[in-house]
Amino acid sequence: MLLARNILLVDDEAPWLRTLSVTLQRLVPEAVIDTCVDSRQVMSRLNNTDYALVLLDLTMPFDSGETLLESIRQAHPNTRVIIVTGVNEVDTAVRCIKHGAYDYFIKTDDVADLGHSVRRALEVVGLERNYTRIKDRFLTKTLNQPDAFSHILTCEPALLDQFRYLEAIAFSPEPILIQGESGTGKKAFAKSCHLLSAPEQPFITINLAGMSAQQFDRQLYGQLSQLPGESVAGAIHHAQHGVIYLKDIAQLPLDSQAKLAEVMEQKIYHPIGSQQGYGVNCRFVVSTQVDLIALNQQGDIRSDLLYRLRGHKLTLPPLRQRKLDLTILINHFVQQAAQELQLNPPPVPSSLVVQLQHYGFPGNLYELQSMVIDAVSRSDAVQLNCAPFMQAINDSKVASEVTQTFVFPAQLPTLADMNQALIDEAMNRTGQNQTAAAQMLGISQSALSRRLTKDK
Ligand SMILES: Nc1ncnc2c1ncn2[C@@H]1O[C@H](COP(=O)(O)OP(=O)(O)OP(=O)(O)O)[C@@H](O)[C@H]1O
Fold first, then answer.
1. Which of 12, 115, 158, 285 is deepest in the core (most CB within 10 A)?
2. For ligand 1, what atom is nearest to the CA of residue 180?
3. Is the complex ipTM more than 0.90?
């Protein structure tokens, strides 16, 4: 949670101000505390510095605390005021709260309670500021740092919206969840987040597919060992203030999920074998190909992690819903492939995009990229060879006809045979990616994993 920092303590008794300042600094170490003994200076101090919170005495020469409370609430509605006074009267307290005081304390009250109230007020102001910044950035049509998105080609309004949203949340300390099918550009967006927030710092990817809880804990948090050469620093240490990209969070074993949620919440981690906690300074960007809410309902993802991740969420559309982008993407991949193959880029026939309008691109940008490489390598200098595209369009038509009509052999296969054949086909089609195969089969990844293990 983002904590606003600046506090102004106002009281005409200088010794009390000093004591209060020292006590509060101990209770809320992140706070930046200023003091003011002259009530006439309060408003000008507030005009010059962006205070999140004012702690205000009531009985002071010149301007009374109650007058100042009204002026502050009117001129600086985002600044909270806590009354700290010797006046122990219910009527006064009620009046102050009515006029917008956040809280009311008697000077003899327990300072720990005052400390809690101050911390809560700072958190509230921090959240409000964060929310306003995100809203303002999101409503702005232009981008502050377009260069951070130069590797993501698009003219789709839905994706351009995601650029502005990412720019708005780039400095928020909360994790970012990016959802989308394989090859929709999740990692490309994670890199944009890195370029926006900490380009000088490391960007570390951890692919969670097939990773055990122990492997994950060791890789992320590191391990402290008495044995020479066995200690290893984790990604959180290496990333410093940079970005850690956790690819395919749905594959994270349940045992590691609770710990990760807690680390994200507390911003403290313990390397394996260490009692000492260390601060987490990096930003987490997490990707998923599957709907985490559905997985949560099946018991495959813990609620604490799910809710921790859903603060900032981007959903990337599949390529079949990005028809406007086909032309620029094909041209871009043609240039890229020609450069790699050391050929002159062949011209793209204008009919190609029209022919691809109804193609589903199950492999999204990966598929388009490899089709283009295939096409460029078969091309002469006159025109791009469109055979690989036509082949894919025809194959998909045949496949959809087959699945629609289900032509079975004379002797029906058993249910077990059909199950096995479907699982094998889904695993082959997805390049042995269990999450994508499970999605294709309409079952959970853990259910597929159980079946695969049973077959071994
Ligand atoms: N808008 C884009 N313009 C150009 N290239 C792109 C764009 N989006 C993605 N790419 C490229 O497409 C490929 C797939 O993108 P990326 O790796 O970001 O997808 P992903 O969703 O993270 O995939 P996976 O789920 O398999 O990890 C990469 O080579 C990437 O550079």
1. 285
2. 21
3. yes
**Of 75, 86, 76, residue with least CA distance to 53:** 76
Does residue 373 contact residue 339 with C-beta atoms inside 8 Å? no
Give, for all 456 residues of the chain, the pLDDT tens digit. 456 789 999 999 999 999 999 999 988 888 899 999 999 999 999 999 999 999 999 999 999 999 999 999 999 999 999 999 988 888 889 999 999 999 999 988 888 899 999 988 998 898 888 777 777 766 667 788 899 999 999 989 889 989 999 998 888 888 999 999 999 999 999 999 999 999 999 999 999 998 999 999 999 999 988 877 788 999 999 999 999 999 999 999 998 999 999 999 888 899 999 998 898 999 999 999 999 998 898 888 999 999 989 889 999 999 999 988 999 999 999 999 999 999 889 989 888 888 898 899 999 999 999 999 999 999 887 889 989 999 888 887 766 665 555 667 778 888 888 888 889 888 888 778 888 888 888 888 888 888 888 766
165 and 262 co-located in one domain: yes
The Cβ-side half-sphere exposure at 239, using a 13 Å CA radius, reads 26
- Shared domain check, 165 and 286: yes
Taking the C-alpha atoms of residue 132 and residue 140, their distance in angstroms, rounded to an integer, is 12
Residue in 365, 372, 429, 445 to alter for ligand 1 test, most ligand atoms within 8 A of Cβ = 365
Ligand 1 atom nearest residue 369's Cα: 12
- Atom 6 of ligand 1, residue of closest alpha carbon: 152
Residue 142 lies inside a defined structural domain of this protein: no
In this structure, the residue with its CA closest to atom 2 of ligand 1 is 152
Residue 446 lies in a domain: yes
Q: How far apart are CA 307 and CA 409, in angstroms?
A: 48
Cα-to-centroid distance, 365 and ligand 1 (Å): 6
State whether 171 and 292 are in the same domain.
yes
Residues of 120-151 as b/e, b for ≥16 C-beta within 10 angstroms? ebbebbbeeebeeebeebeeeeebeeeebbee
Q: How far is the CA of 346 from the centre of ligand 1 (A)?
A: 23
350/281 same-domain check: no
Q: How far apart are the CA of 316 and the centre of ligand 1, in A?
A: 11
Would 144 be classed as within a structural domain? no
Task: Compute the 3-state secondary structure of the chain and give helix, strand, coil in percent, each to the nearest 5.
Answer: 55, 10, 35
Q: How far is the CA of 151 from the centre of ligand 1 (A)?
A: 10
For the whole model, what pTM was predicted?
0.67
The ligand 1 site (C-beta within 6 Å) comprises 152-154, 180, 182-188, 247, 287, 289, 329, 332, 365-366, 369
CA-154 nearest atom, ligand 1: 1
Residue 229 lies in a domain: yes
In this structure, the residue with its CA closest to atom 26 of ligand 1 is 182
Kindly state whether residues 336 and 310 are assigned to the same domain. Answer: no
Range(s) of the domain holding residue 223: 151-317
